[in-house]
Design goal:
elongated; alpha+beta; 5-stranded mixed beta sheet; 5 strands; Alpha-Beta Plaits; 176 residues; 31% helix
Length: 176
């Protein structure tokens, strides 16, 4: 094969010039304001999860899992460990310390399952309360966000309601 027969390699600059532009900001860092509540154009009230962060990396149609987890009591130090583990599996969501401790994570279904398996191996007892899987974009922040303060319980409930886990949460809190 002669040199002339080989496909020509473009310079990186030429390649990028021909590549269509996107509006995706791959460097966007998700920030969370869990206590913020807003209103959409059609007058509907948004939950903290909907207001929380830009989700420019989402791909519509990806199968995501939302997993609700309960533990008897969750201290801040334990919450930090759970946040670190969730980060390893690219899971986002919310965590509420106290008694009972509640965690709701969102991510790829495979990652949620591995995360739950690892939690079940811990000394502390973690119980899978409910799981919802669907093809959709993210609803929660990209990182597991600690909810604290007087509004934490209400914000956590609104987040669970926004993704179809409300009945599971109510059942867990009522001891059923």
């Amino acid at each position: 094969m002669d040199e002339d027969d080989e496909p020509k390699k473009e310079s990186l600059k030429d390649f990028l010039a021909k590549t269509p532009k996107t509006e995706i900001d791959w460097g966007a860092k998700a920030t969370t304001t869990p206590t913020a509540v807003g209103t959409t154009a059609d007058g509907a009230t948004t939950t903290p999860a909907a207001v929380s962060a830009p989700r420019s990396r989402d791909r519509t149609g990806v199968r995501l899992c939302r997993l609700l987890i309960k533990t008897e009591k969750l201290a801040d130090q334990d919450a930090n460990e759970v946040q670190g583990m969730a980060r390893k599996y690219n899971l986002g969501g919310f965590i509420q310390t106290g008694s009972p401790g509640m965690i709701v994570v969102e991510g790829l279904e495979f990652n949620c399952d591995i995360f739950m398996d690892n939690l079940e191996r811990q000394k502390r007892t973690y119980v899978n309360i409910g799981k919802v899987s669907e093809r959709s974009g993210r609803s929660f922040p990209m990182e597991l966000t600690l909810l604290s303060g007087e509004s934490a319980i209400g914000d956590f409930g609104k987040a669970c309601e926004s993704v179809g886990l409300k009945e599971f949460l109510e059942s867990a809190l009522n001891g059923n």
